[in-house]
Here is the input.
Amino acid sequence: MAAEQTTILRTRGLVRQYGPHAGVLGVDLEVPRGSVYGLVGPNGAGKTTLLGLLTGLRRPDSGSIELDVERRHIGLVPDVPEFERWLTASEVVTLSASLVGTSASDARVADELARVGLADVADRRVGGFSRGMTQRLSLAAASVVDPELVLLDEPSSALDPGGRAAVLDLIAEWAQRATVILSSHILADVQRVADVVGILRAGELVYQGRVQTLLDRYLQPTWQVRVRGDAHALRARLEAADWVEGCDELGPGRLRVRSRTVEDGERGIVAAAAGVDARVLSIQPEEADLEAAFLMLTRAEQAGSTQEAP
Amino acid sequence: MNVVRLEWLRLWRTYRLLVLLVVFAFFGLLGPLTAAYLPEIVGLATQSEGLEAAVDLPEPVPTDGIVQYIGNISQLGLIVVAAIAAQALAIDFTPGLAAFYRTRQPSPRSWLVPRGAATTLAAGAAWTLGLLAAVYETVLLIGPLPPGATVLGWALWVVYLGFAVAVVALCAALARSKVAVIALSVGLLLAIALVGVVPQIGDWLPSHLVGAPAALVAQDATGSDFVAAAVVTVVATGAALLGAIHLMGRREL
Here is the structure.
């Protein structure tokens, strides 16, 4: 029997209002333990406010936050991290551990800095660090406390592509031993690492659930099919099928097929090709990305929030 | 990294301790020097202005050296202390840094008390250095000072410095920028000193301690004259710190 996934963090009707449409307006967040939860939304949607409420840096007007973890085991990586400019990078990491009542050996500190690519500047004062370096240091400072829950607010916004990839690797590593809430507007990053996603729009959670479910629900699965033989017959057969939403001929022997569901397309295209005189050369799914689903969802007029059990 | 090392590094690497020591030592050396040579200085000034009128100044006495020192540091010295205390205590105006501390140590007491204590110790060390310089030069140039009264005056000023730092902590919880914290703190200390001009009230206020070293070495007052003010100052220091902790605990980032 599969183990039941517990919830590490749950909010009920969480409200923090800065104006009629600003802040967080009745958010019911549910974060499964051990998951990577992607928190996405346009600028001003309330992501940073929500993280502030979850870390206790802000107080809600109403609603509740249930945490199944001690506050000192929560790590926050803010969007613009800052440290004492006169401390060295290794001193910052050491301080981070000591502030929560633990100690980190020199080897551990060196290891954390190496993981974020700061080994060479471990003894340099952080006042001279670039924003990207400070952001990496913030990740090391969060990691050294062995957090059970990590909240990352735009952790890769100041990083180059190499830095972004390193951060995503680190998040994947964290996911082995902690729960991660990743707030980001770089949806490709979220799609790469998140299992569950929550979409905020104007302070409201308009979707919460599995990333794949979101993609399946809000994006029409589309394939490009290349055949040798009678492509017209295949097209006619596909258009007659009730699961096909549309079929266009892109060129000789090339079709684009839009199906009702992913499963319908995966089963139906091959079956349809077998029924006519056409040999399938390739069936290539068009990429279904979170960004497209996000745009579909946020543009749509939503009457209420769309949630599924994570 | 323990809190003692952290606060030591804060004072040392930011040059705050050095600034405090230099400022207080400078005034400690300057005070007795100006007191001892005031007749010559005034004489030179009147000559250079072509004035014929003779200025009859009394012979300097040892108290004058201490009075000069206190006069300087009770203004400029306190502003420097307020500025340095504000740098250490007002962390909420650097949001990323505040998030670093507040998410790891939710109670402001955890960082406010050690930072306040370290700043008070540094200010106390600077005050001590300045006083030692002033006493040494006074003895050398003018004459001896009563040791007991000098030590008592030193101790009462340390109590006052603790109060001044606690006032900065309270202002850090009330104001919205570091500059405002410094201005509000200095304004508040000045306001207390102005209220202290009223005789019936003045003897009970912390500002009464500012003039204690001079009054004690001049033997115009005894230790018992400052007991009430010292008790009020200690209580006010505690109240200001508790107020700061309470207000900072309620503050959001």
Chain B touches chain A at residues 1-2, 6, 9-10, 13-14, 94-97, 99-106, 252-253 (CB under 8 Å).
